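Quick one, tokens below:
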């Protein structure tokens, strides 16, 4: 019987046609990805057209079989490489935090003093839940959604318009006719608890890593380059403030929210206007009571001065408005039984104790594990198996055990004794200098460390290989199918290795093969991060990629480092953000023969790309220049200056050398400015620098 793929459309029966439509939809989607996202078509335009034609012809013959995700329905712009940047005309501010009632009473006092109000003059505040999601800014021109952006650093965000358009709560056109010609509406994108749970179940079924909490899940869903993926995620949106606007909409915040509703937005229904501090605090407690039953995460309430004229008189201080404050809730707590303590071995050998709990709902999310941090923490709290414990979950943080509730342990085992050997490979576990954790000394002999390194290698921020989630890595590793990162790429070339495995049909094998092949081209920063070198997180990997520019260059410099070449070490240390202990970890990595071997193999198998600077980066006058900031900066913080310089494509270094292009010296600059002068490096004042980059 011939393969459906080989038959002409006329000869296909219904079953074969169905199979073919599935294959074509998957294949066309994959080629679209290669073409649009990676700029790397794998087939000729002609062959691509043939696939599309065949799909159309089969659909014409069997209209009932047309798939919901049919490629013939795909319209709109191709997905872009990364996101464009959007400058916020009105900066997106953050909020200062209050943690107690006293802080709020003080806040009211500050407002009164600032505005010169008498103690009996009422100050209306609008009190709203503080949603634990991600803020977004939506700009409407003549009532039509033109741009949707993330907050970014508050000044520049990312253009995620197409993703935001997929959210039902965000109108693509404003209802009613009375809106200003330009209006920017801001609010929070969030994911309800139920949808978070079902999304995670689905991800796990597909062999992908689940998200840690609803906020991360919402962020991951919004960051998709392909809006059709965002569209499958049930994200929601609450509108809560105004950005750039061409004409006033209201003269106070409460009326503004009413206007938002008429435009078709959802405003949080718990929002209330309060006329006194007491009323506001009562309302804070009321929302606190409702919090465990709300279908989404909130981490406090926000108090906002209602009158806009007062808001503008108060202005802002250090990127937060003076007229608003967030009153945080304490972390959500619950009681349960700690059934067992298990030890997790991390990628770098750290032994982390984990509390396995009787599952319990904390603030709407089911929790069955909590971290116990390290042996000292267990001893200090005297936590034992079988204890009744109080646990807490706060926003992004992993749930924690706060305390033991029943120290009466008649007839129960004694204190927990922390293992002194790795539970996986039985190598001795030792405590490093000044470290609270014990580490397995097994290195690559330890199966757990190797498996964790592999998981890290394929994880979302590293190679991001679809279909190779933690579960699959564990199975493939246990069965000896994948022992090193190289094996992953070899697997794609020998798909027969997967045949006959439970859960692996023709389609899932071919999907995995494509997902792996897609990642054979990788930016240098991701590649470096994926190696899992201790202390080399995403930010450091990016710094290394920027400094060394190519894999060959980085490898040969690091090789020199291993050979105790002083220049190579000074060069590495001159990168602002890389200190001696990170240098030691990088050196240790390159000293391991196994790492060398894997690096060599990977460099033969993969195309590691130089990180492409964005348009802003490459067109700026400081692009590619190495700059050093020294002395006191008066117009911005050091961190801000560094971030701005890096966003313009400059490399920021901590020390001056012959390779330095510019030194920006503020008052109090000492030896670095002198060295720059000695070396003939251009010296700029902060103002000159700002002028240069503006
Ligand atoms: S108002 C100028 N209202 O909290 C005030 N923010 O910590 C700007 N947030 O970036 C924000 N719920 O992402 C405001 N009802 C609410 C909010 C809210 C959540 C977030 C928002 C902001 C962050 C500041």
């Amino acid at each position: 019987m011939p393969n459906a793929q080989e038959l002409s459309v006329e000869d296909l029966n219904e079953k074969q046609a169905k199979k073919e439509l599935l294959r074509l939809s998957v294949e066309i989607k994959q080629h679209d990805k290669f073409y649009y996202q990676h700029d790397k078509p794998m087939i000729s335009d002609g062959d691509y057209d043939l696939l599309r034609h065949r799909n159309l012809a089969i659909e014409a013959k069997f209209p009932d079989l047309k798939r919901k995700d049919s490629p013939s329905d795909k319209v709109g712009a191709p997905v872009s490489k990364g996101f464009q940047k959007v400058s916020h005309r009105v900066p997106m501010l953050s909020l200062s935090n209050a943690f107690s009632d006293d802080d709020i009473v003080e806040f009211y006092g500050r407002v009164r003093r600032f505005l010169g109000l008498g103690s009996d003059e009422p100050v209306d505040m609008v009190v709203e839940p503080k949603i634990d999601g991600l803020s977004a800014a939506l700009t409407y021109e003549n009532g039509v959604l033109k741009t949707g952006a993330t907050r970014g650093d508050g000044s520049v965000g990312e253009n995620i318009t197409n993703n935001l358009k997929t959210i039902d709560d965000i109108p693509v056109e404003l209802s009613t006719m009375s809106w200003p010609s330009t209006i920017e509406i801001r609010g929070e994108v969030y994911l309800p608890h139920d949808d978070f749970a079902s999304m995670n179940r689905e991800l796990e079924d597909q062999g992908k890593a689940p998200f840690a909490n609803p906020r991360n899940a919402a962020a991951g869903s919004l960051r998709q380059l392909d809006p059709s993926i965002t569209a499958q995620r049930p994200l929601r949106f609450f509108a809560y403030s105004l950005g750039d606007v061409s004409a006033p909409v209201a003269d106070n915040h409460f009326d503004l929210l009413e206007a938002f509703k008429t435009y078709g937005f959802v405003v949080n229904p718990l929002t209330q206007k309060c006329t006194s501090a007491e009323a506001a605090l009562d309302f804070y407690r009321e929302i606190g009571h409702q919090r465990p039953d709300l279908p989404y995460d909130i981490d406090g309430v926000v108090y906002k001065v209602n009158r806009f004229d007062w808001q503008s008189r108060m202005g802002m201080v250090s990127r937060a408005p003076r007229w608003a404050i967030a009153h945080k809730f304490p972390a959500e707590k619950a009681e349960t039984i700690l059934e067992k303590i298990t030890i997790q071995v991390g990628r770098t050998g750290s032994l982390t104790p984990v509390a396995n709990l009787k599952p319990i709902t904390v603030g709407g999310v089911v929790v069955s594990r909590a971290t116990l941090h390290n042996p000292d923490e267990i001893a200090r709290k005297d936590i034992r198996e079988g204890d009744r414990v109080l646990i807490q979950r706060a926003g992004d943080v992993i749930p924690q055990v706060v305390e033991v509730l029943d120290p009466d342990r008649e007839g129960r085992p004694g204190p927990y004794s922390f293992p002194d050997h790795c539970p996986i490979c039985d190598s001795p576990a030792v405590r490093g200098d000044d470290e609270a954790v014990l580490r397995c000394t097994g290195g690559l002999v330890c199966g757990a460390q190797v498996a964790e390194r592999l998981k890290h290698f394929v994880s979302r921020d590293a190679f991001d290989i679809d279909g190779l989630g933690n579960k699959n890595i564990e199975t493939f590793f246990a069965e000896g199918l994948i022992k090193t990162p190289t094996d992953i790429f070899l697997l794609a070339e020998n798909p027969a290795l997967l045949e006959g495995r439970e859960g692996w049909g023709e389609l899932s094998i071919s999907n995995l093969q494509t997902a792996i092949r897609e990642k054979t081209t990788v930016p240098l920063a991701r590649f470096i991060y994926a190696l899992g070198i201790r202390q080399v997180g995403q930010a450091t990997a990016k710094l290394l990629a920027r400094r060394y520019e190519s894999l060959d260059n980085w490898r040969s410099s690091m090789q020199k480092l291993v050979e105790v070449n002083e220049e190579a070490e000074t060069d590495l240390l001159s990168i602002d953000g890389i200190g001696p202990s990170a240098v030691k970890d990088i050196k240790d990595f390159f000293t391991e023969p196994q790492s060398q071997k894997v690096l060599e193999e990977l460099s033969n198998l993969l195309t590691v790309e130089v990180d492409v600077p964005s348009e802003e980066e490459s067109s700026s006058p400081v692009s590619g220049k190495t700059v050093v900031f020294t002395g006191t900066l008066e117009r911005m913080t050091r961190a801000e200056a560094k971030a701005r310089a890096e966003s313009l494509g400059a490399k920021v270094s901590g020390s001056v050398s012959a390779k330095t292009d510019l030194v920006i010296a503020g008052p109090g600059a000492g030896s670095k400015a002198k060295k720059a002068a000695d070396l003939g490096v251009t010296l700029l004042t902060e103002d000159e620098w700002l002028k240069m980059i503006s």
